[in-house]
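Allow me, if you will, to draw on your knowledge of protein folds for a short while. A protein sequence and the structure tokens that stand for its backbone fold form the material at issue. I would ask you to consider whether the tokens describe a fold that such a sequence might reasonably adopt. Thank you for your consideration; the sequence and its tokens are set out here:
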Amino acid sequence: MAGTSARKTGREPVVAGIRSVEYVYESADHRWAQQIDFAPALGCTAVAYHLTKRNAAGWKISEDDERLVSVNLGEPDQALFVLPNNYRHYDHTVFAYCALSVSPCER
């Protein structure tokens, strides 16, 4: 969602131990406002998000909140990238050829 009015608030909240920079985006009719905290140390990834929607009378009709709660900086455990012992590689071109050589009615 993008607003017609965007501004940097000057606040630098710390989210999950990471310094962030807060921006607010608001629609021209003030029916919704979005606050996003971006973390420069994480490539300006959004680490906190708050959205408020209002009806035509100005009453809040919904609020959404998302926030990073923890982060582990550094390289991931290499065990996450080890293939299982029973892993088998299949040539996808063979399967693509078989799929194209059989009509849908014959499957």
Observations:
- DSSP finds one helix and seven strands in the chain.
- Confidence is low (pLDDT under 50) at residues 102-107.
